[in-house]
Design a protein that fits this description.
With 192 residues, the chain is mainly alpha-helical. Helices cover 54% and strands 5% of the residues.
C-alpha cells in the first residue's frame, strides 16, 4: 500500500480561533519542495526521451504549442525567477529557438537547478518573509514575500508538467505521473 494513511479528527474553523493566520515556511521546506520539483521535471523530461525530435516540435495546439516549446517555457520560467532573485531582470524569457535539441534544454534546466540549490542553501530563514521586488516582462514592478515567489515557481512548473502529460498522450507516448505524493512514496521507500 502506498502512502501513510492517518486517522485524525475533523477540524472546524473554531479550532483555529486565536491562532496566527501567517504561514511560516522554512528553508528546509523549500529545499524539499524544490527536490520534488527536480524529481518531477526529470520524470517529465525522461518520459519524452523516446520520442523522435520531430514529435517534440509538433504543434499540438496547447498553450505553448509543442513539447519542446512547453519544456522551454518551464525552464525559462524557472530561470527568469532565479535571475530576479539575484536582482537581475531579464527583458524576455528563454526562447525555443535558443535550444537546438533536448540535450541543450536539459543542460540549461540542470544549470538552473544547481544555481538555485546553491542559492537556497545560503539563504537565512528571515529572508523568506522579506518582500522581493522584481520587474515583470511588461516592465511593471511587483513585490511579494520571497516564500510566495518560491512557492509560485514550483506551482507554475507543476501546471505545465500537467500539460506535458497530456501532450505525451496526444503523441502516443506513455504518460507520466508527477504527483507530490508519488514523490514522497518513492523517497520514503528509499529512506527505509
Amino acid at each position: 500500500m502506498l502512502g501513510n494513511p492517518v486517522h485524525c479528527r475533523n477540524f472546524h474553523h473554531t479550532d483555529w480561533e486565536g491562532q496566527e493566520d501567517e504561514l511560516s515556511p522554512t528553508i528546509a521546506y523549500f529545499k524539499e519542495l524544490y527536490a520534488y520539483n527536480t524529481w518531477a521535471n526529470d520524470r517529465a523530461f525522461d518520459a519524452a526521451e523516446p520520442l523522435h525530435a520531430d514529435l517534440l516540435k509538433r504543434d499540438l495546439g496547447n498553450s505553448f504549442g509543442s513539447l519542446h516549446d512547453t519544456f522551454t517555457h518551464i525552464v525559462g520560467a524557472e530561470w527568469i525567477w532565479l535571475e530576479r532573485w539575484f536582482g537581475r531582470w531579464p527583458p524576455a524569457l528563454l526562447q525555443p529557438s535558443e535550444f537546438s535539441d533536448r540535450k541543450a534544454l536539459r543542460s540549461k534546466l540542470n544549470q538552473v537547478r544547481l544555481d538555485r540549490e546553491k542559492w537556497i542553501s545560503t539563504l537565512p530563514e528571515k529572508t523568506l518573509g522579506a518582500d522581493m521586488r522584481y520587474r515583470n516582462l511588461r516592465g511593471e514592478f511587483y513585490s511579494y514575500p520571497l516564500w510566495q515567489q518560491l512557492a509560485h515557481v514550483v506551482n507554475h512548473s507543476t501546471y505545465h508538467r500537467g500539460q506535458v502529460t497530456t501532450m505525451l498522450r496526444q503523441l502516443g507516448a506513455a504518460a507520466v505521473s508527477t504527483d507530490l505524493l508519488l514523490y514522497y512514496d518513492e523517497h520514503n521507500k528509499q529512506r527505509s
